[in-house]
Amino acid sequence: MINFDDKRGFYRMMVNSMVNVTVVDDEVNQVVLATCRDLSATGMALELPTPMEMGTQVKVGVDASSNGVHAFDAKGKVVRITEEGADCYLIGIEITEMD
pTM of the entire structure? Predict the structure, then answer.
């Protein structure tokens, strides 16, 4: 029997691709370049040089040239923030909508 250390309902695919993250805000739609470490049907982990606030609404765009991943756009919200080092934050995004 396989022992899963985490309780995820979906497998994660290791991606390691550059993505555009747009912070959805009423005043400013700030765009940040990030690295998508992994992706599942319901979420993704992004590596950013600066942290984001919990609950921040974002749009994430992956282009077609990214490591065998088909182009897509997703909307989601920040559900986890982990500081991994100087200028390196791992941000967990819960996907709420995919295009």
Answer: 0.80
